[in-house]
Automatic annotation (TrEMBL):
PANTHER family: REVERSE TRANSCRIPTASE DOMAIN-CONTAINING PROTEIN (PTHR33332). It comes from the Eukaryota. It comes from Hirundo rustica rustica. This is Reverse transcriptase domain-containing protein.
Length: 162
């Protein structure tokens, strides 16, 4: 049953370009490994040019214990998935990951500001969706020299090669 549901969801997402090319998790032919390779290619290219790059690793606090499944199902329904598929997903939702990452070139003031804006938007999104980050598990990797970054009002711990 899960394979049938997965196939229908994948077809819909592909046909309607619901998920961007950069998405690796839960996509056939893509994995954590393909994500790492793609990310490392991007970072290496920027650092090889003598520029700085920050990658922020974020961890949600008990992500799928906090968000009501009905919120997730409503969001999935908004992608126009067949209404017969989404009710069966409620039991499957707890299999999703609870972490993400955000990165950007920070060799200019504008780049640093853009990354901070993106981080702020992610924090706002989490709050809006009744999520919260486990800020003690969130870290930033500075490739080059570092700059302060905050998640909400808290500065992220650095674990970088500065």
């Amino acid at each position: 049953m899960e394979k049938i549901i997965l196939g229908a969801i994948e077809k819909h997402l592909k046909d309607n370009t619901v998920i961007g090319h950069s998405q690796h998790g839960f996509i056939r032919g893509k994995s954590c490994l393909s994500n790492i390779i793609s990310s490392n290619d991007k970072v290496t290219h920027i650092v090889d040019q003598g520029k700085r790059f920050d990658e922020i690793f974020l961890n949600f606090s008990k992500a799928f214990d906090i968000v009501p499944n009905s919120n997730l199902l409503d969001k999935m329904s908004s992608t126009q998935l067949d209404k017969h598929i989404t009710p069966g997903l409620e039991d499957i939702l707890r299999k999703f990951a609870d972490n993400t990452k955000l990165g950007g070139a920070v060799y200019s003031f504008e780049g640093r500001e853009a990354l901070q804006r993106d981080l702020n938007k992610l924090e706002d999104w989490a709050i809006t969706n009744h999520m919260k980050f486990d800020k003690g598990k969130c870290q930033i990797l500075h490739l080059g020299w570092g700059n302060p970054d905050r998640l909400g009002n808290e500065k992220l711990e650095s674990s970088g090669a500065e």
